[in-house]
Amino acid sequence: MQIEDVTISRKKPVYPVGPGLAKYLRIYQRDAKLPVCYRDLLEFTETVPVMDKYGNDTFWETPLYPPHLQDRLYDGLKVVYAILKASGNTKIVQHKIIDRIEYCAFGNTKPFRIRIINRLNDVYDYFYIKKADASRIYGLELEEILSPNQVNYLVDRDTLVEEHIVGIPGDVFSKGGIHTPDYNQTRIAKEFVKFNERCIISLLGDMRAYNFVMQITPDFDDFQFRIRAIDFDQQFYEGNPKVYMPQYFKENLPYVKLAMEYLNEKTVLQYQQEERSSIVHRVRSERHRIKDLRDASQLQELSTPGNILRLREGYAKFYNNEAYFNCRTMTDIVELNVKNVIRQVKL
Q1: Which domain of life does this protein belong to (predicted)?
Q2: What is the pLDDT of residues 245-301, one digit of tens each?
Q3: Does any domain span residue 9?
Q4: pTM (whole model) above 0.85
Q5: What distance in Å separates the CA atoms of residue 201 and residue 219, rounded to the nearest whole number?
Q6: Which whole number is the average pLDDT over 305-333?
């Protein structure tokens, strides 16, 4: 594994949801009619910076709304939460209040983070409202289909609502928790190898440590680890193959060092093969869904012609497979990645 400074485009356009994707979302019940849309949340008058407990700028801001608008937004956001979590059953929000709204002007989808609290016991939860970016939605769907993780989201025209993904931010974990004595370092390294493999196959880019979380589950004799992506803005847009390989980002150096220290070439290959086999099982069980997703994606622009040409050349070299030169879209490359995985598992 290697580390280098991989360049990421910070001006990726937000691609609107095309007719094919809209139809797909209806078929698989990802669409919804929401009482609050993204544009409604933009009607704030000013913002106040959000600082962390150490006084550092978090790059989130608290938007301030006129009182009459705030009351309407808060009531609507509770209904949005009920639709996301309980198919619209508002009984789950009878004792909940919207504690705060936060806004991040960075990132392609400029998200709003909503904190909702149960006033009976102070238990809180988060959810996000963002611009509906087609490539991000494809990333969420591929995460649902190709990874061991489930994602919960809804789309209403130009509004995307996402469930909060719980976990320790990857950069925080790498600084403070990765060397905890009770943690099996080999298990953490193994999970990073598997995560790296999933990103390469699904073309999920920019998986720096702050764009994924570490989920830790105590087992009867050890701790289990799962890395989960939380940012899908760079789903199959860039033309540099290394953008889709977390091992190359300098922010992931602690994980790369762990893998180099605790794994050898044979065990890395073993874990890569395990992940490929798991992907094959998921593809077989969701073959109709992934076909529908592929068909929907072929109907709209998701990257630039130059990026597609550059990436297919890079993957042809990476896999030593000239079949990539026949790919015309980013989803063609994903499809060929999956077909190659199926062939490898059969061998």
Answers
A1: Bacteria
A2: 999 999 999 999 999 999 999 999 999 999 999 999 999 999 999 999 999 988 888
A3: no
A4: yes
A5: 29
A6: 95
Domain carrying residue 214: 168-346
Domain co-membership, 126 together with 188: no
Residue 14 lies in a domain: no
How many domains does the chain fold into? 2
Query: Is residue 147 a part of any domain in this protein?
Result: yes
Residues 301 and 329: beta-carbon distance below 8 Å = no
Supply φ then ψ for residue 129, to 5 degrees: -125, 125
pLDDT value at 3 more than 60: no
Answer yes or no: is 5 within a domain: no
**Which residues, other chains included, contact 10 with Cβ-Cβ below 8 Å and sequence gap of 6+?**
none
Integer Cα distance of 128 and 41 in angstroms = 11
**What pairs with residue 113 in β-bridges?**
102, 128
Domain boundary among 131, 163, 195: 163
Query: Rounded to an integer, what distance in angstroms lies between the CA atom of residue 319 and that of residue 158?
Result: 37
* Alpha-helical runs (H) found in the chain: 19-27, 38-41, 67-86, 134-146, 170-176, 185-202, 253-262, 265-285, 287-297, 305-319, 330-346
Matching residue, tokens 């301030």:
64
Give the three-state DSSP class for 66. Answer: coil
Average pLDDT over residues 56-84: 93
Planar angle of CA 162, 111, 31, nearest 5 degrees: 35
Which pair of tokens denotes residue 294?
Answer: 């592929």
159 contacts 132 by C-beta, under 8 angstroms: yes
What is residue 183's DSSP assignment?
Answer: S
Q: Who's near 224: CB < 8 A, 6+ residues apart?
A: 187, 216, 217, 218
Other Cβ atoms less than 10 A from the Cβ of 131: the count is 17
Which of 178, 163, 240, 164 minimizes the C-alpha distance to 209? 178
β-pairing, 96-103 vs 112-118, is: antiparallel
> What are the angstrom distances between the C-alpha of 130 and each of 36, 55, 127, 185, 252?
12, 27, 10, 36, 27
Backbone φ, ψ for residue 280 (5° rounding) = -60, -45
DSSP tag of 326: G
